[in-house]
Amino acid sequence: MIGNSLPEYVFIRASIFALRLVAPASVLFVAACAFAGAFLLSPLLASYAIAEALFYALIYVPRKYRLQHPPTYRPPPMSRAEREALFRKCCADLDLLQDTSYPKGWFLPKRTGLEFKLRRQDVEGWLLWALFVAREAQEEWREELDTYIEIVEKILGEPLDDGPGESDVRSMRLTYDPVKIKHRPLIWYAIVCVVDTITSLKLFFLGFKHYSSRKWFEAFPPRPLLSVVSNKVDISPDILLQYWYRPHRSATKLPIIFLHGIGIGLHPYVPFIRDLVSQDPDVGILLIEFLPISMHMTAHPVPPAPLVASALNTILEALAIPRVVLAAHSYGTFVATCILHDSGSASARAISPSDPDVPVPLVPEHRHPLLAKLAHTMLIDPIPLLLHLPPAAHNFLYREPRRAAEWQLWYFASTDPDVARTLGRAFFWSEGATWAEDVQKWMRVEGAGEGEGEGEGEGEENGGDCAQSGVNGTAVVDNNNSPQAEARRKRGRGRHVAVVLAGNDQIIPAEQIRRYLTGLPDASARWVGRGWADWQLPRRRGTRGMRGDAGTASVNENENGDGNGNGNGNGNGNGNGSPDVVEIQEGRGVGGGDLEVLFYPGLDHATVFDTWERRKAVLEVLGRFVRDT
């Protein structure tokens, strides 16, 4: 991300204006040439103008229409109990909202600056999208919807207007709203092709090999270099999932798998990847490419999470990798948490284009052996945390840009055709939305796969059937018999999770996420919760005080504590993103992993990768993760 200075504002606005001017200027130039009956200025310029005009008329315009088609994938339908539990979670932690009430932030006035009051029909339509993945209410849902409406009225402190009349608002419903895209000229895709080729060369020099299941011309712009040197692999042709791999050569460390975010592919991450290679030359690195969010034109958006999980498991098995450290950034964190969620027995389904009510089998059950291969996890600029709150959706897809960085995000990410299609037709918030309890579950269940279950009583620190005790005395049973899982059971430790946040993130509510995870009102550059996976999370979170049993714990012993214990996180770091303050909280320490939160005050989304000073703490954490086998 660029900054918000006046020169940067002028630069980004001029760049966007120039790129958007190419198509109309080309059409006018071609028309002038046709009127004159000759090529004006030069045949080369005229040929380029013809190419741009044809690209706009024959590719962009028809594609803009096709991208409005409804989603071809629907997540597993939830039961009433699941919907009620999800809605209760959404209505908790509302103290984290600063500027508006919930769910009012999910609604936008039809006219800018208009003060509005929510109507019953507005909230009902939003609830149908959010919880039922439906446009119209079925009769059996009526009582349930009435219950949700009553809860919303209590939160707002006033009844919803149920009378006739036109609504003054529209709700943000990503998969139902129009896909808003802006044209990109051929010259832009030529730039993307050059940057992609340079990135490929840099990765080759770092020792990576490229693997692909598709031919190079099935994405645009083409990848001519990779069409020659890429290794073909056997992955489902329905999944446009390519990857880079640097072989793993260590017997005592874990390899890393990295899922990138929206942008120009892996290019912004090359310095970070180079640092990883320098730090641990013997550690393997697997880089997954999501071309639909990499400024490429593709036939399909990012595949559904169950298909991505199957593809990743196939890749890891083909590479003979039993366990990995998972690192993800931005949109990659959404994919990561979709994979980490174990949704049980319900199967997802496709939607028949001819009959939306006819289920078409498409994806397997989202209960996958891939979960047993994932060790520690790092989430950088995480999208899924507090995803039920409106900031992430609003800031990426609905905000009117004003500052330089917002204009950059708007044109080069939000309105990119394939990015907008992925977010507007393949992004189901309930699949990836993540709460603290979910994070704790991942951290406690190390090595659990198909045999995972639950039982009563306390876990045994020295192994046995119960890996460790969970919240409220619930023991998580680990039936995985791998040597690695057995070793971890004997040591009585689970997965560690690190979360990296930028204080001035323009997309996600980073400060609210920090307070949600740490329970502390003041920020520290580094916060560590020892044994956080086993902490007792209070039912209602005010300032999110935690409760623990350890004698050295800097937590409030009161169940409704204010979280201000001995380490109340009043350090603010050094301001340049290199954390120098460590805040340690202790949990019960009976087997769960640690939670680490790195907070970079003053940084924007993705800027943690910009300099080595900022990357240093991230690299240090990953270095510890790969050594903790």
Q: Describe it for me?
A:
- The protein has 629 residues and is an alpha/beta fold.
- Among the domains are: 6-66, no CATH class; 73-171, no CATH class; 186-347 and 363-436, Rossmann fold (3-Layer(aba) Sandwich), CATH 3.40.50; 451-490, no CATH class.
- Helix content is 36%, strand content 13%.
- The chain is built from 18 helices and 19 strands.
- The chain has helices at residues 6-36, 43-66, 80-90, 120-132, 142-156, 186-205, 224-229, 270-279, 305-318, 331-340, 391-398, 404-414, 417-425, 429-432, 436-444, 483-491, 510-518, 612-627; strands at 73-74, 107-109, 169-171, 209-212, 231-232, 241-246, 256-259, 285-290, 324-329, 349-351, 359-361, 374-380, 453-456, 466-469, 474-477, 497-502, 526-530, 582-586, 595-600.
- α4 crosses α5.
- The longest helix has 31 residues, at 6-36.
Share of β-strand residues: 5-15%
Q: Judging by the overall fold, what is the CATH architecture of the domain at 186-347 and 363-436?
A: 3-Layer(aba) Sandwich
- The class by helix and strand makeup works out as alpha/beta
Shape: globular
Strands, count: 19
Beginning-to-end CA distance, first to last residue: 35 Å
- Global Rg: 25 Å
Q: What's the tally of helices?
A: 18
Low-confidence stretches: 343-366, 446-485, 487-492, 539-579
**Lateral strand order in the biggest sheet:** 5-4-6-8-7-9-12-16-19-17-18
**CATH class bucket of the domain at 186-347 and 363-436:** Alpha Beta
The major β-sheet equals:
11 strands, mixed
Indicate the percent of residues in helices: 25-40%
What's the mean pLDDT score? 80
CATH topology title of the domain at 186-347 and 363-436 = Rossmann fold
Biased composition (Polar residues): 469-484
Biased composition (Acidic residues): 449-463
Region (Disordered): 449-494, 541-586
Keywords: Membrane, Transmembrane, Transmembrane helix
